[in-house]
Amino acid sequence: MPSFHTSPPHRWRAALLMLAAVGLFSLMDAGLKVLSTRYPPFQVAALRGAASLPFVLGWTLYSIGPRTLLRVRWGLHLMRGAMGVLMMAAFVYALRGLPLTTAYTLFFIAPLMIAALSVPVLGERVGPRRWVAIVIGFVGVLVVMRPTGEGMTTLAGLAVLLSATGYAVSAITVRVLARTDSTQAMVFWLMLCIALGAGALAWPQWRPIDGAHLGLIAAVGLAGALGQYTVTEAFRHGEASSIAPLEYTALVWGVALDYGLWGVLPDTVTWAGAAIIVGSGIYLIHRERVHAEAEHP
Known about the structure:
Layout: H1 8-36, H2 41-63, H3 74-97, H4 100-107, H5 110-122, H6 128-145, H7 155-177, H8 183-202, H9 214-237, H10 240-243, H11 250-262, H12 268-295
Helix pairs in contact: 1-3, 1-9, 1-11, 2-3, 2-8, 2-9, 3-7, 3-8, 4-7, 4-11, 4-12, 5-6, 5-7, 6-12
């Protein structure tokens, strides 16, 4: 076995961390969905960023100190911050009108977008089999959106796709930033940009925060910060191709939260679209792993 493969204990640790991250982000999204019915999308996005900042800053100061926060590539961070504001506000808007399960299903197109964008932006090579997986994944989106019927071709559904596009562009930017900047700096500046950028856009329609929601806002911030920490640790200790498929366990969380909190279950068409998108994503990850092993036998 190649020496760069992780040992079994590390693989188990990475898998458990990834499962924890997915659960934490799902709980955060449930909180965002509740807040989306009370406040405008940009305000919810700003609250999410601001609530996570103290936890992220504490993690950064404890782990690497403050100096690395300033030695960064500012232009790329600002662009990623703008994508973060777009991604978060669009997703919050979508959550107001869609069940978590449907939003997650559509958002799962993001890994396929990342693979497609890696060709023109990063100069990576995507073989014909992976292009087929990408195309099939987009077919799955059409199944969920149901553009020719009474289906989900709504502003909410389109907002999820806009959010996924912002996420994909942000992820491509991370691949470039990771060559020079620390993970902590990337997370901190993203949260700060979301808090300030979304806050500025929300200010004209800012609504007073109900004191009863302060605990929920703090919980959203904590879940988001812990989710970011655990997903970072998961990718630190495990191989991306092994743990990335665990992101799809968000569907389980989505179904449980939708049914437990709102009494909603996905219909057959949504399940069919989810199967197509998830299957395409898993096959794409498999092909990337095969390609990586061929380059580094």
